[in-house]
Design brief:
It contains 3 helices and 6 strands. It is α+β, with helices and mostly antiparallel strands and 125 residues long. The protein has a two-stranded antiparallel sheet with strand order 1-6. A two-stranded antiparallel ribbon has the order 2-5. A two-stranded antiparallel ribbon has the order 3-4. The longest helix is centred in the middle third of the chain and has 24 residues.
């Protein structure tokens, strides 16, 4: 007579073997997805009116981009430059002897610096 554990073990092995015997179907690969993409040709304006409309559209985008760039935060914080392990000689401070010790010293204070501005053509003023 089979114990419940043995019966469960045999059922699990049979279920696993049945799952492995299915026909192998490879998944789609990245290369298949790239080959399936439809590429459009670059559209070139055919008439003078289309060329002028395209040029005005580009100018509008540049003006919009210029406004957004002026609105962003152009300043960044540079942390102070510190040097640790500087040997400080012994000295008397307020009537008390301070023995020589190592300390962190600030070499340059922190400051706000402006990032290099991006210059766009003078459009739409």
């Amino acid at each position: 007579m089979a114990t419940p554990f043995n019966a469960f073990f045999i059922a699990a092995v049979l279920a696993t073997a049945a799952g492995c015997s299915a026909k192998y179907e490879p998944r789609e690969t990245i290369l298949d997805e790239q080959n399936a993409r439809i590429t459009k040709e670059i559209y070139a304006p055919k008439t003078e009116l289309e060329r002028i409309a395209y040029q005005e559209g580009v100018q509008q985008v540049l003006v919009d981009m210029k406004g957004k760039m002026r609105a962003r935060n152009r300043f960044t914080w540079d942390a102070p430059h510190m040097e640790c392990g500087v040997r400080i000689p012994s000295r008397v401070v307020n009537g008390m002897l301070q023995p020589s010790h190592e300390e962190c010293v600030q070499i340059a204070p922190g400051r706000w610096t402006e990032e290099a501005p991006t210059f766009l053509p003078e459009l739409g003023q």
